Amino acid sequence: QAQLVESGGNLVKPGGSLRLSCAASGFIFTDYYMSWIRQAPGKGLEWVSVITTSSSFTKYADSVKGRFTISRDDAKNSLYLQMNGLRAEDTAIYYCAKTAAGGFDIWGQGTMVTVSS
Amino acid sequence: DIQMTQFPSTLSASVGDRVTITCRTSHDISSLLAWYQQKPGKAPKLLIYRASSLESGVPSRFSGSESGTEFTLTISSLQPDDFATYYCQQYYRNWYTFGQGTKLEIK
Predict the structure, then answer these.
(1) For residues A57 and B73, what is the distance between their CA atoms, to the nearest angstrom?
(2) Three-class SS state of B9
(3) Residue B17 gets which letter from DSSP?
């Protein structure tokens, strides 16, 4: 059964850094794009970033471009999000999602990032 | 950028009702639209992909359709488990945008 498990969320001060991880199992990780999506408290969903197979291409939402870096380790079936220069508006639940031809078909349970002094 | 407009933002309905949620895109997206259901404290769940294809395991009372740049999610007969928030999402050219969401409440 396909599964994604995020970790690394925490309370961090404005300007700080955090690295999120997502462990994948139950599907052929190397065959799929992977994405990060976030949801601020009480708000809607916001796509953050996508990485293609073989890490050949990455894309970012304008709101995080230049501050966040997505990466993957295919040997470890893992996805990462390095977040630098964090701001209060980055406070959200961060989900990783398997990105298939038909949208985001598998989601993790999410990890909470809180940016506050 | 492709803009998404989802409406209504809130919908009150009763068990057994037929309901429709609409999403409009600013450009043609070649049917590359999905619908998700999210319950409080849970991750979203994919219901419909490519505008009208039902994800495996999703009840057949859910259906999707399109007409040009307007996309519709229909629930044919509401069940108690269907009260949740619904999002549309486009995935055209590796650019992903969600609609604002529709909260489906019990009348």
Answers:
(1) 32
(2) coil
(3) -
Q: What is the CA radius of gyration of chain A?
A: 13
The reply to whether A46 touches chain B by the CB within 8 Å rule is yes
CA distances from A114 to A11, A94, B34, B65, B91 (A): 5, 10, 29, 38, 28
Classify the C-alpha dihedral B28-B22-A93-A15 as positive or negative.
Answer: positive
What are the C-alpha distances in Å from B80 to residues B18, B36, B43, B84, B105? 13, 17, 19, 10, 10
DSSP helix/strand/coil, B30: coil
For residue A36, give the amino acid letter.
Answer: W
Minimal Cβ distance to B34: which of A95, A103, A107: A103
**In terms of Cα–Cα distance, which of B95, B94, B74, B76 is closest to B86?**
B74
> Nearest Cα to B103, choosing from B4, B1, B31, B8?
B8
For residues A23 and A43, give the distance between their C-alpha atoms in angstroms, rounded to a whole number: 26
Within 8 A of A109 by CB-CB distance, chain B residues are 43
Q: Give the per-residue pLDDT at B96.
A: 93
Quickly tell me which residue has 């404005």 as its tokens.
A14
Residue-level pLDDT, tens digit, chain B, 107 residues: 889 999 999 999 999 999 999 999 999 999 999 999 999 999 999 999 999 999 999 999 999 999 999 999 999 999 999 999 999 999 988 789 999 999 999 99
